[in-house]
């Protein structure tokens, strides 16, 4: 059997693409509710994701086929189509906020002189091109871009850590459990990364200790996110929630920047590279689902539909972005939690049913 | 069409087919039997014809049969030909053909001789240390150069003739105990499927052998040096020689190959690593600096340090063109000068460089048409591009594209276009070999010959990026001499 991915690529995928989209507006969203305890809210969400990822990894160990065949084997053709449709809706909705974040970032931070939505449009041909590529391209992108994420992160860390006052997060838990949990709940749109791993089931050769490697990679990724959150809050403390684009703001007090220009842009640009891929992922997986549901052979058709719809959402609902963001943080958060965390957590059950002849599936 | 025993019938057909004034039909007598020697005047060694064909023919005293004739001549390259079509092909290849009355076959003597260039150092890959010989246009000479490098019975050459009119001999070269047999078979089949009028250079084969019809990057590697080719073949690659071309092709091709130089393997690993980093850095400067500068000038002034910004503002004051037009115009002029200096005779080319580079550039800056930073950036970009000469043309196109994108949509447009390029590169495969290996997919064991150049002791195994059937290439035996000393 020829595998599309390698275990190493799955591990690097978690390091390259998981931390980055949590460095845009999520820190300010969390800081607004749980203030100094924002890192605890983040820790809760990360722990839930870790559990999901561990369970999905267990499914990877058990399964001899891919996720689509597993679902079809368990729920039949109609049932599987229904479940896949739920995931399709999930990914389409999950993509809206990060794409808008990046658009807003591009407009307001990169193009301060002439802000316009036009400058963000080149993103869509990139996603379209990615969507028509096989899964191994995601693995290969992880092989290249993990280094961008890590360098970008360390450049920002190096430039900002000296400005952080770590006593700002003490005493721990002063804001109360209610606010901490509430912040965690509102951030579900940015988490639920276990859902991505579902599509890696059966796509790589699971060997002994691979589960540990995957979970360890996620732990590293979680460490990056947590350390970023803590440093971010320790720099800005009570005004942290006003810093909309955390990863651009985090290094702005560094004296090196005054002498060398925006030196931190080296890190920022590297992170934007990773983020461009990262925010394309929901659409990529949405395309894969659509290809499967309708058995589409010409991938460009589904890619065009998915990317077109997302571009249309961006262009038409651009003015209502804050309402959409509030919806994602409010009523839709439970949907994101169920589909992003709960459903993937039940994936080991899919392997209980005796697997059919998957070679023919 | 099969030959017949009647010489006149055969000759009548051949004279009709080879109706050209440079084809000689020399009538001779072999033991009172009529015979004809056919050859193309300027392609054969006439002294050798006299010694190896005519003299034995005059001294021939046995009965005229095909086998007796075959045994009577001592030419090292001789073979029997049974059809008239093959006779025509042999003549066109430059061989001499002897037909005798009463025999329904012909003898072909490989007595080709034509002018060929002597072996010199190829201008595209000069080295300070290391072998300086390069391939020439003659296929036999190139094969002999390879045989001299790799004296093993496993070195195989397989010949294919391609070209309806050119009938160009093409040779496939590989080491049987290393090369992947499936790959050899796939290439052989692909070569045999080529049906083209003529193959005038190996670049024809290179374009036809690629799996992707439209490709920004090359799909087949090439080299002009036997030492490089030997090293590539020893890694499991397959070489293709084309008669008439001094450039040998190699399959499969990895992008990193063009960042490696022959001298990297003859110098110390430290200097080789530094040189490779420099090449990579130079390519990044060449590709992105003009576009980034224009993007920064137009959209992202905050990227430029204040002191540098003031210098730029002073230098662009009064320039009538917008930054992107100015950069594009300068790039255009640079490309025109580049094209002209390559095409012109050597000495005129030097004049063009001086007039274009010094006079035109300085005058344009003094006249206030273009600014000094723009000129400097284009000049730097132009120089940097030549650190990887093999990819110069591809990168020149990409540089122009990035410049247009940077000038029209700024940094984010550039980021998106680079991301697009990354997706393109990492998904690109030819003969099931990823173009960007060993970086994507990441093959850590092969990184010893990536940007970092490892010591020779580190290269104990053949690269995994290229399929091969023999993994080990170096065994270090402990002799114990060190301890004794």
Would you mind describing this structure in some detail?
The complex is a heterodimer of chains A (361) and B (485). Chain A has helices spanning 7-17, 26-34, 38-62, 67-110, 123-131, 135-160, 177-186, 194-198, 210-236, 246-249, 255-260, 265-293, 299-316, 321-329, 331-345, 347-350. Chain A has a single domain, classed as Up-down Bundle (Amino acid/polyamine transporter I), CATH 1.20.1740. In chain A, 55% of the residues are buried. The mean pLDDT of chain A is 90. With 361 residues, chain A is mainly α. With 485 residues, chain B is of the alpha+beta class. Chain B has three domains: 7-109, no CATH class; 139-253, no CATH class; 269-427, no CATH class. Chain B is 45% helix and 13% strand. Chain B has helices spanning 7-17, 46-58, 66-72, 84-92, 139-149, 181-192, 202-209, 226-234, 269-298, 306-316, 323-343, 346-366, 372-385, 392-427, 481-484, and strands at residues 23-30, 33-40, 78-81, 96-100, 106-109, 155-162, 168-175, 221-223, 238-242, 248-251, 429-430, 433-434. In chain B, the strands form three sheets. Chain B has a five-stranded antiparallel sheet, sandwiched between helices. In chain B, strands 6-7-9-10-8 form a five-stranded antiparallel sheet, with helices on both faces. In chain B, α11 packs antiparallel against α12 (346-366) and α11 packs across α14. Chain B is elongated and about 100 Å long. Chain A binds chain B through residues 6, 8-9, 12, 106, 110-114, 118-120, 122-123, 125-126, 129-130, 133-134, 136-137, 139-141, 143-144, 259-262, 265, 269, 272-273, 276-277, and chain B through 299-306, 308-309, 405, 409-413, 415-420, 422-424, 426-427, 434, 436, 439-442.
